[in-house]
Amino acid sequence: xxRLVFNAMPWAMAKPLWFVVSLVSVGILSxxxxxxxxxxxxxxxxxxxxxPWAMYATGAALGNGQFVLFVVPMVLNALLLLAEEPRSxxxxxxxxxxxxxxxxxxxxxxxxxxxxxxxxxxxxxxxRVVGLYLLLTxxxxxxxxxxxxxxxxxxxxxxxxSQIPPPINPAILGQGKAPANPLLRWFRRGVRGTYYGSxxxxxxxxxxxxxxPELAQWNLLASLGILGALGLWIFLHRRVDLWxxxxxxxxxxxxxxxxxxxxxxxxxxPLITLCRLTRQPHFSxxxxxxxxxxxxxxxxxxxxxxxxxxxxKPQLPIAIQVTxxxxxxxxxxxxxxxxxxxxxxxxxxxxSPASPPDSPLPV
Length: 363
Fold this sequence. Notes:
- There is one protein chain.
- The longest helix has 26 residues, at about 10-35.
- Helices cover about 65% and strands about 0% of the residues.
- The chain has one domain (about 1-350).
- The two termini are about 30 Å apart.
- It has about 375 residues and is mostly helical.
- It is built from 18 helices and no strands.
- It is globular, with a radius of gyration of 21 Å.
- The model is unreliable at about 150-175, about 345-350 and about 355-363 (pLDDT under 50).
């Protein structure tokens, strides 16, 4: 829908409009982060408010016209609306439509659907999202049936990228003429794109580990395996604090499939989860201290301009950054497991994950 709107505009109008709409979306994200971060003092609120604006991922996404600036706020607002109990029918539909809109980029939003399925009370939101998504897909398919699209190979022999070898399994990228089925064409194009992207700019994902031709044929199975494991984990921990689940899911969403540096905006969710941990009284001082250390670790590497294009050889800084993601993932998963066993506190002692603090906001 957005593409139809912006494609109909002249470039001189589309560019500033996209810029303004993107800034509004980041502003909404900033406002929501302040509401749910549990910080109290004005300086703390301002610090949280500027977090997304200070991230290199925001600038990179804005400059490259990426949907992540819309997807992350939509996912967050959808889950906060749907997790609220009791919720009105209006909130149910709003959350459903926001999640449906976020699925415009399934590589980011798909892992969060497990929360709609298992964490949200009732199956109506999940069924509505699936039903509407299938309906929109059915509407889109006829426009693709007779579409003529040239699909070049990963690299031609006379191009600089010809040194990039395709996976040895032809079924992974597909060879020869494009299939007539548009769904198969979409699937093949997606698999080709993730492989090419992991070689030519992606980092910090499972596809970047399976980058050699011999291992790249396992990209699809590895991603589906991680996605399935996340779904099982969320089902087992579906009753724990929503923000713990959001933090874990965001990190998995970043590493389960190929992403570029602008998708690091996902890390804002575990960052706020760690911030909340330092403000909740039922956690012990050692846990709060470790949460603060991990917060600083993530935060320093997320600040603009980032490490990917700052250092001539960024491999070591990137390794330290990704290690911080994985350490945070393990930390939050352990806290979720502990809460599942009922160790930290009773349910009544925890602040509601979908309830903002009562104090007014200066932003």
